[in-house]
Amino acid sequence: MRTLLSRRAVLGAGATVAIAAPALAFPDQPVRIVVPWNAGGATDVISRALATAMAQPLGQPVVVDNRPGANGAVGAQFVASARPDGHTLFVASAETHSVNPLVYSRLAYDPVAGFEPITVFASGPFALVVRSGLGADTLDAFIRLARSRPGQLTYASWGIGSTSQLAAASVIQNAGLDLLHVPFTGAAPAYTALVAAQVDAMFMNAGPAEGLARDGRVKILGIGSPERVPLLPAVPTLRELGMPLDAANWFALLSPARTPQDVVSRVATVAAEALRTPAVQEVFRAQGILPVGLPPVETRAFIAADRERLAPIVRSLNIRLD
């Protein structure tokens, strides 16, 4: 199956979640959604919007608990060890469940056996951007410039083995380029370096890219989604530009393994309903995020397929983080 969804699939996926009334008294206490990243980032923002919209139909407060560290491993381990009753959920992403298993020989959590998939609730397309003044305002111009200066142009990422690096590596391999990787400790310092012209290019989240481009501080060359995104309707996709690549992160709700299936179904249903609310859709749009809403069985297959898709890229870069 494809690991990145078309707009038609994204907008219609929520309706495929079956409504099931749980046999257990769930929830009988506040529900906690663990976000394995710092507060204020895109993952945190969209998770809080989803949590707010889920509270009323669940009849309990839904709170976000930020537990950053070790590329998401701290939060993942916490949730994998939690009581499997649906009251502790995890916001997984490509980093925690596709990349980490490929770059770490030992993880404190099992990304497959340690969790029960609930729903892939969002897709975050990446934008390929270059610094202002580089002299390459189109993808073709950037490729020509990079080929004329092998090993001289640089690209930033928010860390070795990050989805930002892997997206850039896909373009580099596809176009036969030679660029120098400059990893940072997070997205914010990478963005700062790009704006300050300390690096030449990077793949960044669509929301921040739109803001920086609007202010004239970067130039967006293309978007990594199968179809154009509402936040950047004038920006062509990489596929439109002749590069058959998708570049995006995804976000999923998971629960600890052995969570009862009626509870999983209940959470999946409520999350799908929340994604259709105007308030959630507006927050997602402002971040350049697309609502998804895959049901549990498709969520499991999606994550497995994404890990398989990224494996050859990780191997070609020989990335090991332990």
Automatic annotation (TrEMBL):
Keyword hit for Signal: yes
Keyword hit for Signal: yes
Signal peptide, first to last residue: 1-20
Keyword annotations from UniProtKB, A to Z: Signal
Pfam families: TctC
Family stated for the protein in its record: Belongs to the UPF0065 (bug) family.
Name listed for the protein in its UniProt record: MFS transporter
Species per Swiss-Prot/TrEMBL record: Roseomonas fluvialis
